[in-house]
Structure prediction request, 153 residues.
Amino acid sequence: MTRQNYYARRKARQNRKVDAGLVVALVMEERKIQPRLGTRKLHFMLKGILAQEGVKLGRDRFFAVLGEHGLLLEPKAAESPCTTHSRHYLPVFGNRIKGLEVSQPNEVWVGDLTFLRTEVGFLYLALLTDKASRKVVGYHCGETLEAGAALRR
Prediction:
């Protein structure tokens, strides 16, 4: 490594520290006003101020600086649980009862899953319904979506 390269790299590291300090200060100042303001929006808002100060900072480096200082936002908790897993190895069956005329009870049963929000968390409700009479034939309420729990009843 040449002497010129050594000192150029050292100066660049020092400038990056100063730039990161300025970014952190500006972000903390803005987050006092708007605590849930996203990083991309912050980058867009602060781009002009940083350019006036002579700081060249791209989006990815901006994310990295905020990540190093623990200023990235935690994602919000899901409003509803994820009940669909489409990337599986199991076969997908077609709808064999579509358009079928059902005349008597217990000819066709239809199954469905839904979730119930409670104070503790989510519970999953599996229902078996008779298509003709629209009455619930069987059900199971559990903490998971495992098939074995719904088959017990």
